[in-house]
């Protein structure tokens, strides 16, 4: 069932991690419709009590199928657009298959008719194994491609039943489920550890610098425009010169690329270097900070390389005038931690926005350089630990796919 383990060593943790890759290519594949049944029952087993569990799509977490909250109603309050289900079934949401909502109910109840109730043949197909198959990236993509409806795409039952599922023995299916369950536990622990490290940075910042509005440590206060050059890509420059490409020399940094002080580059557009060179004011250099100023205001990222990035619309460039006196790592983390303080300067309009002038006029306490550097060193040490955790997290995610 498994290929030989691939071992990856972390020099920091002195830990050997086996990464197994499930290999089911030689396993018999069976059409789902041959080993499951789909019924639209209107009556559920109400032996659990006078009230009924009523499940709606917004109560289901994407990708995991976890129930976010349980809603119980009197039987007479069950609407007509519902179906009954029990704990032998798998519930598959046919609406917007990209949201990947698959539920393993642990009790009987009623659900919105947007769910398809699937009952597997227990002698051939394990219920939890079926749920893993339906949640897999490959299956989600197949069903997204077959969905119909532009605004509210839905999967038809007949298309779902045409899927071919690898069907090893029940014992092998149970082993796969057990392995994925353990991997999920590890993944959740890793997510929690990464969250705690982020919280540690915030706690250290408050300990060293306090609240910028009360300025407990009496640091010198300056407007951001006094210590940094703040600018944006002008509208006419974007219209006249910028033409996005799927590949090229220079990455356009958009708002969705800015997250938690880091650049997220899984959705990018490019321009030619000649175009970037013709717009030097909005070129990005190592140590520059980018900040979203329209819509989701205050998301930030630190530019880590020269000659690779250019400013896109709705993102401001903050270039510290003297990087020897003002540490970019301190300032980008300061902006992230003080996001609410920055957002309060946004315009009270339909769409939140910050003008360049407002950004320049935001006042910040400016700690001494040695304290900025001390905090930046602390952040870098924490980032090393985060990178280790994220490496293991990536292995777990790849395995679960």
Description:
By secondary structure, this protein is an alpha+beta fold. Helix content is 33%, strand content 22%. The protein starts with 5 loop residues before the first strand and ends with a helix.
Biggest β-sheet: strands ordered side by side in the sheet: 4-11-8-9
Describe the biggest sheet? Answer: 4 strands, antiparallel
**Globular, elongated, flat, extended or rod-shaped: what is the shape?**
elongated
Structural class: alpha+beta
Number of helices: 11
The strand count comes to: 24
Task: State the low-pLDDT regions, or none.
Answer: 1-22
| Ends distance | 16 Å
Mean pLDDT: 86
Helix content: 25-40%
Radius of gyration: 26 Å
Strand content: 15-25%
Draw up the topology in text:
Elements: E1 6-10, E2 15-19, E3 29-31, E4 36-38, E5 51-55, E6 72-74, E7 82-85, E8 90-93, E9 102-103, E10 109-112, E11 115-120, H1 127-135, H2 137-146, H3 157-161, E12 164-166, H4 170-209, E13 220-223, H5 224-227, E14 228-231, H6 235-241, E15 250-253, E16 258-259, E17 262-263, E18 269-271, H7 273-277, E19 283-284, E20 289-292, E21 300-302, E22 309-311, E23 315-320, H8 328-337, H9 339-343, H10 356-361, E24 363-366, H11 369-400
Parallel strand pairs: 5-10, 15-22
Antiparallel strand pairs: 1-2, 3-12, 4-11, 5-6, 7-10, 8-9, 8-11, 13-24, 14-23, 15-18, 16-17, 19-22, 20-21, 20-23
Helix pairs in contact: 4-11, 8-11
């Amino acid at each position: 069932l498994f290929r030989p383990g691939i071992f990856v060593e972390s020099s920091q943790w002195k830990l050997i991690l086996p990464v197994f890759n499930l290999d089911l290519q030689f396993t018999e594949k069976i059409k789902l419709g041959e080993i499951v049944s789909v019924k639209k029952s209107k009556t559920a087993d109400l032996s659990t009590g006078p009230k009924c569990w009523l499940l709606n799509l917004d109560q289901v977490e994407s990708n995991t199928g976890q129930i976010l909250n349980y809603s119980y109603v009197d039987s007479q309050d069950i609407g007509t657009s519902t179906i009954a289900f029990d704990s032998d079934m798998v519930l598959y949401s046919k609406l917007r298959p990209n949201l990947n909502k698959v539920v393993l109910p642990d009790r009987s109840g009623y659900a919105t008719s947007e769910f398809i109730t699937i009952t597997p043949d227990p002698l051939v197909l394990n219920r939890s194994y079926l749920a893993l198959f339906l949640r897999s990236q490959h299956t989600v993509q197949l069903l997204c491609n077959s969905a119909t409806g532009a605004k509210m795409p839905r999967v038809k039952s007949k298309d779902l039943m045409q899927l071919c599922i690898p069907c090893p023995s029940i014992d092998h299916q149970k082993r796969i489920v057990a392995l994925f369950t353990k991997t999920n536990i590890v993944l959740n622990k890793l997510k929690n550890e990464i969250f705690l490290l982020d919280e540690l940075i915030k706690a250290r910042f408050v300990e060293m610098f306090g609240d910028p509005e009360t300025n407990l440590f009496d640091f010198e206060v300056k407007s951001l425009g006094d210590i940094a050059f703040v600018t944006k890509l002008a509208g006419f420059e974007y219209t006249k010169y910028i033409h996005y490409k799927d590949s090229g020399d220079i990455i356009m940094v958009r708002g969705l690329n800015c997250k938690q002080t880091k650049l997220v580059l899984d959705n990018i557009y490019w321009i030619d270097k000649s175009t970037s060179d013709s717009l030097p004011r909005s070129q990005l250099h190592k140590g520059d900070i980018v900040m979203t100023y329209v819509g989701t205001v205050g998301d930030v990222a630190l530019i880590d390389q020269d000659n690779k990035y250019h400013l896109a619309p709705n993102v401001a460039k903050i270039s510290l005038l003297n990087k020897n006196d003002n540490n970019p790592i301190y300032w980008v983390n300061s902006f992230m931690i003080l996001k609410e303080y920055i957002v309060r300067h946004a315009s009270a309009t339909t769409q939140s926005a910050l003008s360049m002038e407002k950004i320049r006029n935001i006042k910040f306490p400016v700690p001494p350089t040695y304290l900025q550097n001390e905090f930046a060193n602390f952040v870098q040490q924490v980032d090393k630990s985060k990178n280790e955790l994220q490496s293991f997290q990536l292995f777990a995610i790849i395995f679960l796919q």
